[in-house]
Design goal:
By secondary structure, this protein is α/β, with parallel strands linked by helices. Helix content is about 40%, strand content about 20%. It has one domain: Alpha/Beta hydrolase fold, catalytic domain (Rossmann fold). The mean pLDDT is about 95.
Length: about 280
């Protein structure tokens, strides 16, 4: 794997890249509280198939792209980062993969730029419209999402998460993330300003524009052990995709799919890319 520094108008994004430069481009977006290397196993599988795969540390996670104000983490700006990174890489179009917050950004990007997103793969995170519906109609999902409100407290949340050797932050991984990977994320998020920047994703406020149905070929992978996203939003997501759609459920797998079930995810991802090779 090669480390990259990707310069954009916002700042410089750290990233890791694999595969031949001429390979079919794939961009992978991480979530909270992780960074680009969450995709290690997927990057290896993509490179083995000849793809050019890049996993950046997103806004706030890259020290060179870390604005201080919560409003600088609005979804429209996060989407702009995706296209800016693709521009810097010379990619007119690309396959897009996202997990957790990265999945939310991927949904919004596919909706805003259908001409650039060749295929979409989202892990865990339902379509934002589906999640909004579930939050209105499903008590289970409201309970699952309550933490998002709690984490908007500042600086109380940072202090609580980092206290006692980051016990709370460490506990989020629920023993499902390899310990050495968790230590890497914790080390990065413990640096001055890093955790506040990551939490600003929750504090940025609502997206201004509404999101509609996605038109690009989409794979959505949800797991039954996900603590953040329940079955109501997962099932509702189908109503928000107008292009070719595939929904896959991983049984007895937690929220941390890319690291807990890498073989299953790799198989689904590679099948999805192969199925839409001529798209």
């Amino acid at each position: 794997m090669t480390e990259l520094s990707i310069a954009t108008g916002t700042g410089v994004f750290d990233a890791i890249a694999v595969g031949p430069p001429e390979g079919r481009p794939v961009l992978l977006l991480h979530g909270f509280p992780q960074t680009g290397p969450v995709w290690r196993r997927q990057l290896e599988a993509l490179a083995a198939r000849g793809h050019r795969a890049v996993a950046p540390d997103q806004r706030g996670y890259s020290p060179g792209a870390r604005p201080e104000r919560p409003e600088d983490y609005r979804m429209d700006l996060l989407v702009d980062d995706v296209t800016a990174i693709a521009d810097a890489l010379g990619w007119a179009s690309f396959d897009l993969v996202g997990h957790d917050w990265g999945g939310a950004v991927a949904w919004w990007t596919a909706h805003a730029h259908p001409g650039r997103v060749r295929t979409l793969t989202v892990v865990s995170t339902p379509h934002p419209g589906a999640l909004a519906t579930a939050l209105r109609t499903d008590e289970d999902q409201r309970e699952r999402s309550r933490y998002m409100i709690d984490w908007r407290e500042t600086p109380a949340t940072e202090e609580r998460m980092l206290a006692h050797d980051a016990r709370v932050l460490r506990g989020l991984y629920a023993g499902k993330v390899p310990p050495e990977h968790a230590e890497t994320y914790l080390r990065r998020l413990s640096r001055p300003g890093a955790l506040t920047a990551a939490l600003n994703w929750y504090r940025a406020g609502r997206q201004g524009a509404a999101i509609g149905a996605v038109e690009v070929p989409t794979l959505y992978v949800w797991s039954t052990g996900d603590s953040a996203f329940g079955p109501a939003a997962a099932r509702e997501t189908e109503r928000w995709v107008e292009g070719p759609y595939r929904f896959e459920t991983l049984r007895d797998v937690s929220h941390w799919v890319p690291e807990e079930a890498p073989e299953a995810l790799n198989r689904l991802l590679l099948d999805h890319l192969r199925a839409h090779d001529a798209h």
